[in-house]
Design goal:
The chain folds into two domains: 3-201 and 428-449, Uridine Diphospho-n-acetylenolpyruvylglucosamine Reductase, domain 3 (2-Layer Sandwich), CATH 3.30.465.10; 204-405, Vanillyl-alcohol Oxidase, Chain A, domain 3, CATH 3.40.462. It is 31% helix and 24% strand. The protein is built from 14 helices and 21 strands. The strands form five sheets. The chain has an eight-stranded antiparallel sheet with strand order 17-14-16-15-19-20-18-21, sandwiched between helices. β7 and β8 form a beta hairpin.
Length: 455
Amino acid sequence: MRTVFTSSSNDSSLTSTSSPSQASWSNWDGRQRFTPAAFERPRNHAELRAALQRAAHAGRCVRVAGAGHSFTALVPTDGTLISLERMNQVLGVDLTTGLVRVQAGITIHDLNAALDANGLAMENLGDIDKQSIAGATATGTHGTGEKLRNLSSQLRAVELMLADGSVVTVDADNDPDAWRAARVSLGALGVVTAVTIQTVPAFRLYAEDGPMPLDEALEQLDELVAANDHFEMYWFPYAQDALLRRNRRTGEAPTARGAVSSYFEDIVLVNYGLGAFSRLGRRFPALIPRLNRTVTRVAGSSRRIDVSHRIFVSPRLVRFTEMEYAIPRKHATSAIGAIREAVHARRLPVSFPIEVRFVAGDDAFLSPAGGRETCYIAVHMFDRMDYEPYFRVVEQIMNGFEGRPHWGKRHFQTAETLQPRYPDWQRFQAVRARLDPEGRFTNAELDRVLGPVAS
């Protein structure tokens, strides 16, 4: 067996010492802001253990921050906030098995670079790479592909430090229930310090983006999903066309795309263009239907071949907030139609697209895709616009289609409304009570969506 050890590119962040301090924190969209009683940035197990001891001595609850790309209030606390940004190393790469062990704070961006350097890749990714690997998996983050599961299903082991400073590693063999709880845990079990990932040999994707009339896309939805390794659809309310993204594995050589072309397509057109239209729509909401139709018309078509992570990931510079629901795949067409009808009937000022993706089911206790083939439908609202009327309308529709919210994105559910949607809810709660019996790893949001730790 050949094992190669590498490190991530963030070595310079490991030079200063860790000590508790006060600092403000905000997430990516800026709508979650708070100042914890103590802010800890440990570099290793010893410093993390000391941070937990200080929190226990002060009687504080503890929350762990990833990269801040969740829209919900999973992180805010008036207790101790722990950032694992300094625990960001690749600990080991086994080229024989494809197993890669990394510290929890590594970003997906840095992980992709390290894997690429070793001829490896994640089998599937979402469209953003700024998250920490622990934050992305703990909230059930996913990509798209009817035969592929969410990111947490690519884990093979999870290392946790519990409130008493002890370290446990759980996998499918040594603690099956803790394993199924830890993959999508919302940070409610302990501090994830490292994960082991099952990677695959690096591969290239042929990406084809282009418009199709929405009604035609909905009629062909099953065929479109089946014909592509990764399929997703975007639709701007009030537009006639949807924008389709179709990715298929290929052995062909990458197509050349220069730095200028990349900047113009990814930054100028997709980000600056969308930002300009969205700001205009925020100021003049009555223009939004016309603006959305214009955006769809100018989007155009493109084709390219590149290594997988460069196809999966796109820059996201325009600020927004988001809600996303997982529903049984069989309801996809009906749910999209219901959202279209509701938005049009209420003339809701929605300048951002509705995003539709598909994944296979998995067995994590709190996975929104648990136990069923799943369609994810995401809705967005531009920065500093009132999202609540739109999101509540969509959530009511999703409730009628057995919807489960993405844990890292906005929703209005509670433990009472969520429990019936998860067959293994009580098994998760039993693991939570076992690993965190004092309820150290909680906050107001977890009390709302999970309830208190069972005594």
